[in-house]
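Sequence in, structure out. Go.
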Amino acid sequence: MTLVTTSRSRAFIKAARFPAPPSRRALRARDLTDAPPVELKATEAQSLVVGSGLIAAAAGVPVQVREDLINCTLFAQLAASGEVRDKTQIPEWYDSYFRALTALGWAQSDTQFEEYEFKSKNGQAHKAIMQVIAALMGPGIAALVVVKAALDALQSMSEDSPWITLFDSQSRVGKSARFQVATAQTDPGGVLQIALCGFTLNTRSTLTQVLFFKFNSSSTSLKYAAGKATIFEAALAGQRSAIAARLDAYRSAYVGQVKFPPPPPQGAATRALRRLRR
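Output:
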């Protein structure tokens, strides 16, 4: 693994090429309504839509970690899109995405994609997401409950909701899509646990509402890379302001907070997860 030094990280942040920001004409007026900055919670569970990614932080995850998840994953998305201009080259895009995170001070246990094994002929994208995260981190993790609450809230929204529209526009490429889910939680001993999953969805039919797409396993391919992640504080600490500065011009178009209900009671969450695994 390449050693991440402060100087290398600083040089990468400065040199990374971002795609041109979307024009105001490209987005509907209501998508550009001024809103207060995202309020990062100090103790509560929280979910955020960040470009083509969904961030889920369980209760107790420090504010600085939440900010790092948002800024680093968004920076990596933009750096990958700036380097790989052809949106159909999804494997190349992900290669650039993971390399960008490494340059920012991240390390991930696995970035290799594998085929998702369908449990039945028909399926839904959001249920596959839950199963992948549960297999990686364990079915009872607190962050999984937050992800489920976030997906439930998004599913209840109209498909032309600004947040759904922006997420789909960032993740969908014709009949394919790429999207990411990052989770963070602290274990009983206070150790931070981060998981990062990348997904690629290919289908023969028209792709709508990426996260809730209903598919037939014979005509749909879902691949994923799921790994536990570590953020090296020594490499990232001095670069946070530089990362934030480069993201300022994009924040109104690419980052938005969706207000979600609190996670369901533990008993209800457990029953819901059991139903998912059937």
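Check: The CA atoms of residues 18 and 79 lie 5 Å apart. The chain has a mean pLDDT of 82.
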